[in-house]
Design a protein that fits this description.
- It comes from Rasiella rasia.
- There is one protein chain.
- The protein is mainly β.
- It is built from 1 helix and 13 strands.
- A 7-stranded antiparallel sheet has the order 7-8-9-10-11-12-13, with no helix packed on it. The chain has a 4-stranded antiparallel sheet with strand order 1-2-5-6, with no helix packed on it.
- The longest helix is centred in the first third of the chain and has 6 residues.
- The chain is globular, with a radius of gyration of 22 Å.
- The N terminus is likely disordered.
């Protein structure tokens, strides 16, 4: 006996209340948020281009006047990580409000620039501070979450690197490099390296981070 399968058109699934599958990255953006940026690259070693969305909240209460009497949007930003699954996407991880606005007041300096990079199946969340240096968080997907596995930072004065810090949360090792050449020009630094062990009970999840600005990596 042959079974007969009925093919139900997509629009009928919507009419009769069945949950439709998310097709596009934009389908995962929640209400009261808009897309800010998007990035593509393989994050789970399946050869498909996964998608990282940076989203931004839309709320007029966070449109404020800054110290220059300019109207600026201080709504926070978040991240959605999607795995490509054939012609569709599925949610891998999310954190809707972990990044400050791009219009925060940097004081006498400019606001550090948030940058996203996908490389070697890892997600890099970076902050660039021009000639003053950078700091970068490395995440990798494991045990159903994106885990913080590394941190790197560089403190610079123009072209001169004063200090570099690198933490490997998998090996629980920390490397600090301090420039000991006070007369250094760019490329002439002489670094003193110091290795140490860090204490860590468990890896931090991307979804658990309330505010990247409040993360203190130097306590390790």
């Amino acid at each position: 006996m042959h079974r007969i399968y009925k093919i139900v058109p997509f629009f009928l699934l919507t009419i009769f209340g069945c949950k439709a599958q998310n097709i596009l990255p934009s389908d995962f953006i929640p209400e009261k948020y808009v897309e800010f940026e998007r990035f593509f690259g393989d994050l789970n070693k399946d050869g498909q281009d996964d998608c990282v969305l940076i989203i931004k909240r839309v709320d007029t209460i966070n449109i404020v006047t800054n110290r220059f009497d300019e109207q600026v949007d201080r709504n926070r930003r978040g991240i959605i990580v999607l795995f490509k699954d054939g012609e569709t996407y599925r949610l891998a991880d999310k954190n809707y409000d972990c990044f400050s606005s791009e219009n925060e007041d940097g004081g006498i300096y400019f606001q550090p620039e948030l940058q996203i990079e996908i490389k070697n199946e890892k997600l890099y969340i970076q902050y660039g501070h021009g000639r003053y240096g950078f700091w970068s968080y490395t995440f990798r997907f494991q045990n159903s979450n994106f885990k913080l596995i590394g941190f790197d930072s560089s403190s610079n004065y123009g072209p001169i690197t004063n200090r570099e810090t690198s933490i490997n949360f998998l090996t629980k090792k920390k490397l600090v490099k301090v420039n000991t050449n006070e007369e250094a020009e760019g490329g002439d630094e002489i670094f003193k390296e110091t290795w140490s062990n860090i204490e860590l009970e468990k890896l931090m999840n991307l979804s658990e981070i309330k505010d990247f600005d409040e993360l203190d990596m130097y306590r390790y």
